[in-house]
Amino acid sequence: MKKRKISSVVDRREFLKNTSVATFMAMMGGVELTESRGADITNQPAAAETPLTVIPALQAVNFGVIGAGVWGRKIVNTLNLLKNDSQYKNTEVVAICDTFPAWLDRAAKDAPKAEKFDDYKKLLAKPEVQAVVVATPTHLHRDIVLDALNAGKHVYCEAPLAQTIADAKEIARAAQKAFKQVFQAGLQERSHPHRHFLWPFIRGGNLGSNVLVRAQWHKKSLWTRTAGTPARAAELNWRLQKNISTGLMGEACIHRLDAVTWFLGGHRLGGRPNSVTGFSSNILQNAGPDVPDTVQCVFEFPEGPNSGVRFLFDATLCNTFDSEYEMYYGTDSAILVQPGNEARDSKAWMFQEADAPLIGWIVYARKDAFGAETGVSLVADASKQKSLTQKGNADSAPQVEPIQYALQAFTANAGAIGGAVKDYADLYGDADTPEYRANLADARKLALSKHPAAGWEEGLEATVLAIKANEAAVLKQKIELNNDLFQL
């Protein structure tokens, strides 16, 4: 892990090589928002301790991973990584499933205790599998998730929930009914401690009145994958097939869509858009001839706190510059959020307007020189979380990927709810009574307060937005987002 540069001067070549838009904003005078400072400013309580700061081991959870492609192997390795911490030492991958033998064998090397399956139904039949992670292509989620919930398993389903709104609603209905189980949508930002620090800061009036939101996802890459046979190529390149693909807005940008609408208040506080206008191009055909590789979407909001605000989103597979970020503009300040990924931590910076109310701690903040500019930043860690792969010290930069936070939450909540089900059944039996449901609802509420995560409702909301945004971009038109699209 590279150490953070704390020198007063940054080498120009290194800067140009490694900088992101967030670093550039810091150069221009941005104030980095961190947990310790942000809590003081907003008079909000500091974010709860992150899961890894809790020492006692959680309930044992045995996992099955369905889908052993690149992302499925990432999930297996992340679950293995959790075992390095005393709280998650009982986590175990006991089953892996994929229809492609080479992928199955490769994933099995990272999970030596796992039984291999080429049929997910055989995996679900194993009583020792308590929780499953569904990491298959989006259009295959529906049947697997429904069967997993039917089999009594806790389910983590990657986002989007499904390829169609009808399928997403069916998953949501089944998850809603499965009151003995945990259903988590794979919206990783919902479990990130830095996001939970930022939410009350942004919602607490530090922006003033909302003016505009901008976000982007830029990554030059090819979605086309090669295979030995045409049939296998079709399986691998499902994202390039417009009849089953949710496009860039679904397969790449859903996390940004969810984060922005969440920070704007969600559907309960006026943060649900009521229309989206889309544009698209196929410049390099990096997503194939039928799926746009460059899209722009403009979301508008109904009357209320975000009336007149527009959320502008652009994404491309043709250029990497500026990577991904969110920018929230208000009448008093602007806030830049740099999402965490495999290469960087989640960070945020604030830029005050000249006529904004004075925030006293800025006077005492550290100031760093970047060439001819001076940036004001806070260097306190955004959380006490330490990387499981490194013993952090004062000069280190702990790196925890968003997927790790999400799987931590799923592991903790599955263990907690599974334990509550067993404890209640041992004491009172497992008859479906109002008292039984109330007991489990309380257990779920307590678990989520410690380990927040996206459930079926958040998953459905983000999936609908992504599907309709992709539709608007492909058709290059405005689409109304009526409330009935989001209702079960």
CATH architecture designation of the largest domain: 2-Layer Sandwich
Q: CATH superfamily name of the largest domain?
A: Dihydrodipicolinate Reductase, domain 2
Report the CATH topology name of the largest domain.
Dihydrodipicolinate Reductase, domain 2
Total domain modules: 2
CATH class of the largest domain: Alpha Beta
Amount of beta strand: 15-25%
| Helix and strand composition category | alpha/beta
Average predicted local confidence, pLDDT: 84
Number of strands: 17
Helix content: 25-40%
The total of helices stands at 15
The main β sheet shows up as:
9 strands, mixed
State Rg: 23 Å
Q: Ends: how far apart? A: 46 Å
Order of strands in the sheet with the most strands? 1-14-13-12-8-11-10-9-17
Given as residue ranges, the uncertain stretches (5+ residues, pLDDT < 50) are: 1-19, 36-54, 367-397
Which short descriptors sum up this protein?
alpha/beta; Dihydrodipicolinate Reductase, domain 2; disordered N terminus; Rossmann fold; 488 residues; 2 domains
Brief sketch in words of this structure:
With 488 residues, the chain is of the alpha/beta class. It folds into two domains: 204 residues, Dihydrodipicolinate Reductase, domain 2; 192 residues, Rossmann fold (3-Layer(aba) Sandwich).
What does this structure look like?
- With 488 residues, the chain is an alpha/beta fold.
- It is 35% helix and 19% strand.
- Helix 3 packs parallel to helix 9 and helix 4 packs across helix 13.
- It starts with 11 loop residues before the first helix and ends in an 8-residue tail after the last strand.
- The N terminus is likely disordered.
